[in-house]
Amino acid sequence: MIVSELIPFLEELGASPRKSLSQNFLIDRNIVNKIIRTAEIVPGDSVLEIGPGPGALTTALLEAGATVYAIEKDPLFASALSRLQTPDHRLHVFLADALDHPLAAIPATKVVANLPYHITTPLLERFFLHNFSSLTLMVQKEFGQRLLAKPGSKIFSSLTLFGQFYTTPKSSFPVSSHCFYPKPSVDSSVIRLDLRTPPLHSPEPFFKLVRRAFQQRRKMLSTSLQEIYPTQQMKETLARLGLRSDARPEMLGLDEWLLLFQKLSNEKCC
Predict the structure, then answer these.
(1) Which of 79, 144, 195, 221 is surrounded by the most beta carbons within 10 Å?
(2) DSSP label at 194?
(3) Is 117 exposed, middle or buried (0-12, 13-18, 19+ CB in 10 A)?
(4) Would you list the DSSP string of 35-82?
């Protein structure tokens, strides 16, 4: 839906973009089509969409032959989506909050969505713990950069490790703020993440260690974690793993973090 179509539609509906719901609507058809290609949507796919709004992406998903399960919190837009229903009833709309709606009740295998930016992280946490095969998501540009960051980068963070723990990044592309109405203050990115089997069955102790280290990311690990592991023990453990004794948290990739965690877990703290 281009802007010349969107504005009359909103006026007829009696709706306006709500900042509290991060409602910035995609108005570039080329970007919509690129999202569909990135997600590799084929006839028969079952797709979860979050916050479809006026339905530009919903329309493209249905045209590609997918069955769409759309969760929309705004009652005006949820009701208006009925106009997109297909003869074979491939559109299912839920008037609900995506943070609360039971994902287990939705038989979707892929997620394709322009995520509300203010709840991106908690939504990802829900997606990672569900049995989806892939996530193709529009996110804030800086958020996407953090997810895809490389070790040693200033933006490599616990979020990066969290994403890599559950997924394998497949592709990404930038989206200008000019592609939305109303125009947001930031640019966006579309990222494709393929879910994988997590490397640990009980990840919470691992992430507790990671979060603690990144809370003091400017400090060496031997300093930021000294309340758990004595400085000398940490330095010796890093050295035995072939890592620098003065390493800071962003210098270790996921595999190195996993090795460090497993080594520390097997060692008794003094």
Answers:
(1) 221
(2) E
(3) middle
(4) HHHHHT--TT-EEEEE--TT-HHHHHHHHTT-EEEEEES-HHHHHHGG
Q: pLDDT below 70 — which residues of the chain?
A: 267-270
**Measuring CA to CA, which residue among 255, 248, 186 is closest to residue 220?**
248
Counting beta carbons within 10 angstroms of the beta carbon of residue 254, is it exposed (0 to 12), middle (13 to 18) or buried (19 or more)?
middle
Return the closest-CA partner of residue 212 out of 167, 255, 256, 257: 257
> Which tokens go with 247?
């390493």
Bridge partner list, 114: 138
- 223 contacts 231 by C-beta, under 8 angstroms: yes
Do residues 225 and 237 make contact, with C-beta atoms less than 8 angstroms apart? no
Q: How far apart are CA 83 and CA 104, in angstroms?
A: 26
Reported as a single tens digit per residue, the pLDDT across 112-163 is 999 988 899 999 999 999 989 999 999 999 999 999 999 999 999 999 999 9
Write down the domain spans for the chain. 3-195, 204-265
- Residue 223: CB atoms within 10 A of its CB come to 15
